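Bumping my old thread because nobody answered last time. Still need a sequence for this structure:
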């Protein structure tokens, strides 16, 4: 059909879909050139052939995404977005999938928020945002239950770098950084912290259930 009627778009569409069916995982690269030919042919009238253009862009974007050619995939999806308002949601959804594949969750959320700006009731976008939120929360490392932190400063409020924070009668010890901050994990059943620094009087602080122990040292 294409040979006899080179302007007949259906022939290009059938060849592209047939190639896609024969190579569903895109391992052989059969469909890509067919969809590229379809896209070129359909672009002669982007209004009349908007559905065929969308089908070609959707396939080519997905094929590029699978191959991790993210810039290429993004270009196809952006082109899909500009076809008409009808296809904007599908384009944003595809971009969301791409960003999630890349691990860029903040941009994936942005794309779903754009979907909700178009379709406030879109449940798929709401569900994706909720999923990303849960995924990010689970990725946040949890502090050790015996970890303590604090800031050691002098009477004027200036931080003391290099101050020692030690659990009394143990070797468990931490030192403050340039901002007077420290962090370390105390041994079980710790009772008293000994806090000191060169040129300052050491003090003892009773350990409770608190996780933050700030202290002021006097000279």
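Sorry it took so long. Here it is:
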């Amino acid at each position: 059909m294409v040979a006899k009627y080179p302007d007949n778009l259906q022939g290009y569409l059938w060849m592209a879909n047939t190639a896609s069916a024969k190579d569903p995982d895109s391992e052989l690269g059969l469909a890509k050139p067919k969809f590229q030919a379809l896209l070129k042919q359909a672009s002669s009238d982007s209004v009349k052939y908007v559905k065929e253009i969308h089908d070609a862009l959707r396939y080519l974007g997905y094929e590029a995404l699978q191959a991790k050619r993210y810039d290429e995939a993004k270009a196809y999806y952006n082109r899909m977005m500009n076809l008409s308002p009808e296809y904007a949601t599908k384009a944003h959804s595809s971009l969301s999938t791409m960003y999630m594949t890349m691990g860029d969750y903040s941009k994936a959320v942005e794309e779903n928020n754009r979907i909700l700006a178009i379709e406030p009731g879109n449940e798929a976008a709401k569900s994706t945002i909720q999923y990303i939120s849960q995924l990010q929360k689970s990725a946040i490392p949890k502090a050790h239950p015996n970890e303590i932190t604090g800031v050691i400063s002098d009477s004027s409020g200036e931080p003391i770098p290099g101050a020692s924070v030690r659990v009394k009668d143990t070797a468990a010890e931490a030192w403050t950084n340039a901002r007077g901050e420290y962090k370390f994990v105390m041994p079980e059943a710790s009772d008293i912290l000994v806090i000191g620094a060169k040129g300052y009087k050491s003090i003892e602080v009773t350990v409770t259930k608190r996780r933050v122990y700030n202290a002021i040292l006097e000279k």
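The first strand starts at residue 147 and ends at 154. Let me know if any region looks off to you.
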